[in-house]
User: Which sequence fits this backbone?
């Protein structure tokens, strides 16, 4: 696995991986200090199990090993084998995954593999006889076989410890206690399901062999798994990172920076994968072609391998892509998260941030305007557990179908965790997916995404479940953010969306003055308008256009004033001004030079998408009661001229906009200025909307 080179007759030092390290530099004192802080954060987050829990896990594994040894002797006796063969009959338990890697936590399950002899079949003996034995044991609860999975598994709890038990049937009559499953010969003459079951243990052992420092690898991996869970990108089944994916990505960074310590490795992790050009594969070693003829990942030969978006290749033969579930949508989400984390790590290295910022939870239920809600119900707990497992394994297909049927124009972000309504009787949970227009996809007039047929196809495939029983129900619906059920939020309390800050202005002898800074609007949470997604339930509905909240709703009376200190030139002063009047007074009464500078400053830092979406809930213009339409028209044309080269107002030509009333005399009672902007760049709503929103965006920088 190590590689070496020869230059001028001298053999270079060996290294791990397919390329030389990027850097062999060691840590500084600052790096050691950051690592200590990181480890304190991980400990305070409860990521390490206690000594008592560690002992309990060892006891559970010992008890499970005794059980499967008794099982294999019983089935050997039932099949009429000789006494000698019955006495020699053996099966062996191996661990893999987070427990074998040494990064498991208090509530983590134990991934285990049962290796049995050739006469112990999977269907009749493992999923039938062993299942009966486990079901009769008092220590075993929540026993649930998943026989039709890609890798068949038996799930249960043993003395409260969650166990995932796989089975591999070898071609040996007797399984030796010192069996080495890392040898390629172990795969000879066994079925495909056994090969896949063995792969987990073989990959885990190989990872530990290919990292330069196991302890640094473990701390870094524990940190990155915690980050992925907090940011909602940890779930292999829904198309994000799973435990093996994270381990392989971290192991590659350890190879590239062999002398780095955890704080350095975390920072380099995000630095490298922010710049990684997918679908170039991540590999810990060269792909082993093997001698058994088993298929390995090779996009040159296998057309299906060319379709993988984020290949992360396992290091053990047969080498496979461990992240084949990743879709274009989930890759985009992960790429954005890599970028965010990289920026935080850069600030950490400059002592401008703390580790806690990296692990802030992703506000999924506030991030989108449109969601798909997939509700699952069953009459009893046992049926619900089976039904939920089946539906959850098919959710990835829904994501792929939406991408395919909308030609990649609609991005689907699955939430990796189930949400439970504790007030409902019987088994119940819900999965959610955030929907938005993909980045770079232009909005066309009247365009909607009708995904009803896609959802119907998904329902049909799910309802083909062979073990379906009455009471197993599936309901898929389109909900908007404001319609999300309360149980998705912590404590069942819907968070209050923060109000945009008010900027207070005052006139001085030389004209209007500004505060120290103009508060920027929060970044848009979605590029999708409410009309972009067709209500798949068939229940249409006209969009309710939101306006400024009445003063009473934002905690201000209509006549209440705000007293706030602000800098005006060299003078420190306090102004008293009506909160809703301040911004528009700036526009109406401001001098032309100040007006132009204000518009330019208001547009800085905004992308085109943010310009369109940032002020979706505002419906106001620069009208003032008593002003003539001609004056307002003049101001709007001035705005167009100022911004023509910078924004979407470039499409707005002088004279193309007008106000419906000659003199504005009827206004919203709780808004100092209002009015209706008509006739933007065309006669349709889709043509008007970008221009209207751009003007609103400029205004909102001062409200």
Assistant:
């Amino acid at each position: 696995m190590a590689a070496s080179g020869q230059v001028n007759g001298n053999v270079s030092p060996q290294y791990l991986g397919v390329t030389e390290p990027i850097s062999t530099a060691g840590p500084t004192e600052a790096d050691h200090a950051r690592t200590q802080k990181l480890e304190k954060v991980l400990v305070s987050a409860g990521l390490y199990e206690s000594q008592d829990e560690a002992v309990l896990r060892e006891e559970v594994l010992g008890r499970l090993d005794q059980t499967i040894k008794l099982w294999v002797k019983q089935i050997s006796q039932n099949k009429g084998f000789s006494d000698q063969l019955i006495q020699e009959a053996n099966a062996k338990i191996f661990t893999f995954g987070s427990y074998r890697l040494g990064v498991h936590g208090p509530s983590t399950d134990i991934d285990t593999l049962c290796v049995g002899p050739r006469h112990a079949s999977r269907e009749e003996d493992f999923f039938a006889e062993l299942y009966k034995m486990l079901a009769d044991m008092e220590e075993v609860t929540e026993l649930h076989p998943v026989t039709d999975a890609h890798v068949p598994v038996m799930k249960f709890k043993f003395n409260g410890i969650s166990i995932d038990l796989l089975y591999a049937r070898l071609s040996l009559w007797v399984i030796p206690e010192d069996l080495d499953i890392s040898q390629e010969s172990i795969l000879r003459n066994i079925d495909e399901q056994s090969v896949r079951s063995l792969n987990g243990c073989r990959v885990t052992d190989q990872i530990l062999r290919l990292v330069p420092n196991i302890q640094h690898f473990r701390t870094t991996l524990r940190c990155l798994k915690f980050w992925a869970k907090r940011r909602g990108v940890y779930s292999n089944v829904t198309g994000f990172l799973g435990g093996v994916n994270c381990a392989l990505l971290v192991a590659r960074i350890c190879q590239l920076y062999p002398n780095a310590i955890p704080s350095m490795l975390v920072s380099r992790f995000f630095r490298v994968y922010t710049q990684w050009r997918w679908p170039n594969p991540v590999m810990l070693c060269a792909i082993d072609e093997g001698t058994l003829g088993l298929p390995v990942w090779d996009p040159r030969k296998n057309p299906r391998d060319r379709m993988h978006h984020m290949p992360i290749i396992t290091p053990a033969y047969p080498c496979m892509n461990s992240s084949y579930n990743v879709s274009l949508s989930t890759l985009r989400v992960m790429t954005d998260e890599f970028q965010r984390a990289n920026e935080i790590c850069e600030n950490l290295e400059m002592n401008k941030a703390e580790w806690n910022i990296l692990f802030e939870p992703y506000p999924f239920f506030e991030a989108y305007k449109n969601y798909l809600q997939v509700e699952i119900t069953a009459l009893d707990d046992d049926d619900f557990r089976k039904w939920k497992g089946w539906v959850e394994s098919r959710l990835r297909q829904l994501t792929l179908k939406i991408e395919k049927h909308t030609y990649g124009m609609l991005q689907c972000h699955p939430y990796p965790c189930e949400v439970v309504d504790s007030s409902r009787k019987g088994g119940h949970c819900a999965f959610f997916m955030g929907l938005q227009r993909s980045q770079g996809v232009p909005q066309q007039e009247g365009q909607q995404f009708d995904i009803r047929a896609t959802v119907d196809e998904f329902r049909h495939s799910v309802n083909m479940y062979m073990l379906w029983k009455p009471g197993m129900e599936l309901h898929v619906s389109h909900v908007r953010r404001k319609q999300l059920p309360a149980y998705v939020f912590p404590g069942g309390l819907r968070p209050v969306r923060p109000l945009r800050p008010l900027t207070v202005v005052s006139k001085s002898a030389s004209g209007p003055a500004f505060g120290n800074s103009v508060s920027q609007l929060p970044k848009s949470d979605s590029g999708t308008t409410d009309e972009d997604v067709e209500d798949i339930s068939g229940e249409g509905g006209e969009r309710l256009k939101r306006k400024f909240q009445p003063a009473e709703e934002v905690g201000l009376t209509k006549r209440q004033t705000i007293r706030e200190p602000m800098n005006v030139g060299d003078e420190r002063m306090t102004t008293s001004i009506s909160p809703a009047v301040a911004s528009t007074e700036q526009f109406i009464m401001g001098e032309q030079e100040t007006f132009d500078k204000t518009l330019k400053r208001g547009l800085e830092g905004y992308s085109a998408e943010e310009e369109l979406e940032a002020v979706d809930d505002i419906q106001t213009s620069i009208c003032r009661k008593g002003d003539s339409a001609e004056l307002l028209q003049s101001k709007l044309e001035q705005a167009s001229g100022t911004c023509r080269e910078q924004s979407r107002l470039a499409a707005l030509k002088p004279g193309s906009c007008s106000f419906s009333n000659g003199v504005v005399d009827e206004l919203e009672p709780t808004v100092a200025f209002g009015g209706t902007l008509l006739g933007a760049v065309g006669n349709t709503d889709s043509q008007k909307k970008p221009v209207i929103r751009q003007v609103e965006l400029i205004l909102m920088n001062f409200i």
Observations:
- The chain has a mean pLDDT of 76.
- The chain is about 35% helix and 15% strand.
